[in-house]
Design brief:
Elements (H helix, E strand, L loop, with lengths): L1 E6 L2 E4 L4 E9 L6 E7 L6 E7 L4 E3 L7 E6 L4 E6 L8 E8 L14 E2 L3 E6 L1
Parallel strand pairs: 2-11
Antiparallel strand pairs: 1-3, 3-8, 4-5, 4-9, 5-6, 7-8, 9-10, 9-11
Length: about 120
């Protein structure tokens, strides 16, 4: 089993930045893919960014050039650096992980482990 805990959410003005973190614990040695998803009120959960075991990254078109996913394997931490935030980025952000080596951002069904989410609110 793998446990994921997100942190770093908050409220910022448009154009601002935030860095989300996801701490993993448990059988982390089995993890081959990690990702960030987000869900706004009344909308489906959508993929934001993914990183595989070889550090290959993939991003949703809506965040390319603004968000950066990275990880620190030694500390079992996953990050999402979010720059130039827009009001439409407002959502609950979730960390996800899976034992399968996904080289691209996949749908929610592809990830077996999830965190509880952290809220990001961007005001105009």
């Amino acid at each position: 089993q793998v446990q994921l805990v997100e942190s770093g959410g908050g409220s910022v003005q448009a154009g601002g930045s935030l860095r989300l973190s996801c701490a993993s614990s448990g059988t982390t040695i089995s993890i081959r893919s990690m990702a960030w998803f987000r869900q706004a009120p009344g909308k489906e959960r959508e993929g934001v960014a993914a990183i595989d075991y070889g550090r290959t990254t993939d991003y949703a078109d809506s965040v390319k050039g603004r968000f950066t996913i990275s990880k620190d394997n030694a500390k079992n931490l996953l990050y999402l650096q979010m720059n130039n935030l827009k009001p439409e980025d407002t959502a609950t952000y979730y960390c996800a992980a899976d034992q399968t080596w996904w080289t691209r951002l996949r749908s929610t069904a592809a990830y077996n482990y999830w965190g509880q989410g952290t809220q990001v609110t961007v005001s105009s």
